[in-house]
């Protein structure tokens, strides 16, 4: 299976799938991804693969206080990969 950096079109659908899964597991409303967080996910170099994305989404949902996954909730190594000003 090619790495995520070679399949960028799969990042958001996979992220949404993990969001749905973890929202159900935690009993939270299903959050949406902020524009800056989405840009960071799409622009990140993804040295890992799907498991790295899965961990990233799980972390963001745990940190989420409302129904939005903000850029700041992403792992530190992903910060700096967005284009939209915060």
What does it look like?
By secondary structure, the protein is mainly alpha-helical. 45% of the residues lie in helices and 5% in strands. The protein contains 3 helices and 2 strands. The chain has a two-stranded parallel ribbon. Helix 1 packs across helix 3. The radius of gyration is 12 Å and the shape is globular. It starts with 10 loop residues before the first helix and ends in a 17-residue tail after the last strand. 27% of the residues are buried. The model has no long low-confidence stretch (mean pLDDT 88).
Our Rg estimate from Cα atoms comes to 12 Å
Number of helices: 3
Tally the beta strands: 2
- Could you spell the SSE succession in H and E letters? HEHHE
**Helicity, as a percent range:** 40-55%
Mean model confidence by pLDDT: 88
Distance between the termini: 34 Å
Compact summary:
The chain is mainly α and 86 residues long.
Secondary-structure topology with pairs:
Layout: H1 11-26, E1 32-33, H2 35-43, H3 50-63, E2 68-69
Parallel strand pairs: 1-2
Helix pairs in contact: 1-3
Features:
3 helices, two-stranded parallel sheet, mainly alpha, single chain, 86 residues
């Amino acid at each position: 299976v090619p790495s995520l950096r070679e399949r960028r079109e799969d990042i958001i659908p996979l992220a949404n799938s993990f969001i749905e899964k973890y929202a159900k597991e935690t009993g939270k409303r299903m959050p949406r991804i902020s524009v800056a967080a989405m840009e960071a996910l799409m622009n990140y170099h993804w040295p890992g693969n799907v498991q790295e994305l899965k961990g990233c989404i799980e972390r963001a949902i745990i940190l989420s206080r409302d129904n939005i996954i903000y850029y700041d909730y992403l792992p530190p190594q992903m910060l700096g990969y967005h284009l939209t000003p915060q």
